[in-house]
Amino acid sequence: MDFDFSSFQSIWDRDEKEEILKDKSQLLVDLKGEPGKNCGGFCKFCYFKKVDRSNITPFGCKNCTYQIGCDYCTYAVREMNGDFLPLPLAVQQVQSALFFQRYRKVNITGGGDISFYPDLIPLCEYISNMGLKIHLGYTSGKGFKDLDTGKALVDAGVEEVTFSVFSTDPRMRGEWLNDRNPRISLKCLQYFCEHCEVHCAIIVIPGVNDGEVLRRTLSDLVDWGAKGAILMRFANTTDQGLILKNAPVIEGITPHTVEEFKGIVREAHENFGEDIRITGTPLYDPVTKAPFAITYYEHILERLRDRIEAEATVITGRIAYHFLKKVFQDTPVNVVKVDKDIADLITAEDLKTVDLRELKDTVFIPPLALVHDRVAEEILNRDKGDRMIVRGVDKLTLDGEISGTLTEEEVLEFERRAFNELIEKINVFGKR
């Protein structure tokens, strides 16, 4: 069923939604800043809380050239960005980007919590005066001093806000978000909901803010007028995504399984979906069926399979594995999984666990896998094989953060294009 954007009161028109699919809809202004330093202190569940920044070993990635290690896989994945940028440098980002391309929206984000950025209001005023829409990306509101701050930001042109909520219970926010003024944060959130398009993020921790607490939180967000809420599964182990030697984040917490979490998202949608768009990450979106919505449509899969002319192996993570197995069923392409939920967080250590006997002459690894190309080739040919190692397509599907603003047909079209691109690569590099 397609989602009705008229009832969503979206500020995006058709052309802008198409730009989203091409990742060109907005200008990203990165204010830098670091977790724990530029955010009022770590939240209890922050993934970066236990990261050791004194002994840094680069992972390697697709951005590396001849040498293992670049700014992304050495520093950016650890959110080692330095302090917030001064206002003149933030303005320069906007000016430089607009010189080369036309944008309609600016997404202000950073490694720290942007509610702590001291010049947030004047920055918004500058951007708004240029005729650009403003999206505050991922703030918890902990840095807002009073309700007047929220009002000033709306007056300065803020039209969209992504707000990390956790819970609408002030006591719980104070404890788990290290929020010194939780009632003020929530008042600002409520004001944003009344005057902006607000999408909320809720990291769901078993026995803490799930169950009845989550129902109360979603009920409050509906009453306040939030447009969307993405539920985010809490990760606490290396195989769930804590690859920075920082597991566990919280001792004694066993996160929901993937199926348990999917059930939580489904129940939230059934209870509140008529009033607020509910999605989940790493899965799923009850409206569009993402991720991998095409796996629900056999006629689409048949057309894709018919185009495959060569054999290859695709390495992926545990969540994508069953979807990809279905896509490539009865084709010359086999799918191999490693013990990591998210394929983009696969590292060299994961590749070392692959049974080389399962690999064909051409092997596709996730494009964003954190491993240098040369290292991947050495690991996957350690049996003295001569396999060709190729990176696949950056995005085969869409995460709930993106799919939650789209219709099912738009998600299906994105996935069709992505899989057609992957199949073209398979036909070029695979063995016939």
Automatic annotation (TrEMBL):
Keywords: Iron, Iron-sulfur, Metal-binding, S-adenosyl-L-methionine. The keyword Ribosomal protein does not apply. SUPFAM superfamilies: Radical SAM enzymes. It comes from the Archaea. InterPro entries: Aldolase_TIM (IPR013785), MA_4551-like (IPR017672), rSAM (IPR007197), rSAM_sf (IPR058240). Residues 46-275 form the Radical SAM core domain. It holds the Pfam family Radical_SAM. One of its GO terms (molecular function) is metal ion binding. Coiled coil: none annotated. This is Methanogenesis marker radical SAM protein. The lineage of its organism: Archaea, Methanobacteriati, Methanobacteriota, Methanomada group, Methanococci.
